Amino acid sequence: MYLIEAYILRRIVxxxxxxxxxAIVLAWTVQLLARINFLTTSGQTFFTVLKFSSLFIPAxxxxxxxxxxxxxxxxxxxxxxQDSELVVINxxxxxxxxxxxxxxxxxxxLSLLSFGIANFITPYARLTMRDMTANAHAxxxxxxxxxxxFRRLSDKIYLEIGERKADSSIGRLFIxxxxxxxLDLYYYAVSAxxxxxxNTGDGRAGNYLIMKNGEIERRDNKTGDxxxxxxxxxxxxxxxxAPAGKNVTIYPKDQFLTYLFHPDPDDSYYQKRPLQYTAExxxxxxxxxxxxxxxxxxxxxxGDARSHREARISASFTAISLSFAFYWLSYxxxxxxxxxxxxxxxxxxxxxxxxxxLLFMLLTNRSFRLPxxxxxxxxxxADLRHKxxxxxxxxxx
Length: 397
Prior knowledge:
By secondary structure, the protein is of the alpha+beta class. The chain has helices at 3-34, 36-41, 46-54, 57-82, 85-91, 97-138, 257-261, 268-272, 274-287, 290-302, 308-311, 314-337, 344-363, 372-396, and strands spanning 151-154, 157-164, 170-180, 183-198, 205-220, 226-237.
């Protein structure tokens, strides 16, 4: 690799890392906040929360990488053009591959990395995350760890305990059940404990709450009548108060690539929606090419030397806009492919057609340029803003 190629690659990598890191942090924060209710109400430790939230990152990486790359390449080449570096490279007689090679090598490397993450790391992370979610719902002991505050167990069911004793029993239990719009139930007990035993009806094991020395208050919301039932011992299945989490539904996005090639015929979800598995398989076989395609797109949009008037607007704007257009169109075809098999060939036709078009434009020294009227409009707008900003700075002095 020539020195100038290493220089270009280093600048792009630095810009890529900055854009990529910012996007990952933002996506991770959004995903964490969207599920903050689960993390706070299931009584998880800090390290469990940290592990759970970090499992979102692999699924985001293949989505963020191509966009971070196109931004990094477009901005780097635009800056080099503005500093006349691309002009100097051309004037020195260097071939176009001096600029192309570092960009394409990085795009190819990120494409291979995207393939590995999407097909091996992401399914493992998603399966682990679903297991953690299921265990948090099933392990109801975690719900009772906090004392002296109301906890939301599920929709319209709340619980408060007075104390958690050393022998794992519960002191002063209060439960509110408002699932029935016509009837409110209030459970009071001096003490209680949780036990696991076998259900003789269907043979499954479950957690049961044994309440001692308490009463149940039934309030009719229509008539206002209140009835109280006192008891020495009262037992019920805790599945009434929290969803069972052991039966985890595995979706096509959660499966490894090898499974998508040969789904289990006994898979209940596969039996209901077999086309989703087919669509997911073909998405996995095409989406990993996006970093390379976006690298080509950025090269066509910003890889040649141009006047400062054109460079001020068209290069980065064009590259990023076309990237979003391409991704939206491919996302649309992928969504349609889950219900209509006729869209599956388009998952291959679109990236291949765009790749051949971009290669043709590169080899024939063509580039994307805004229409002259658009370019003049953007240029005048940017120039007018620059004049207003300059005048404001002078007035401030």
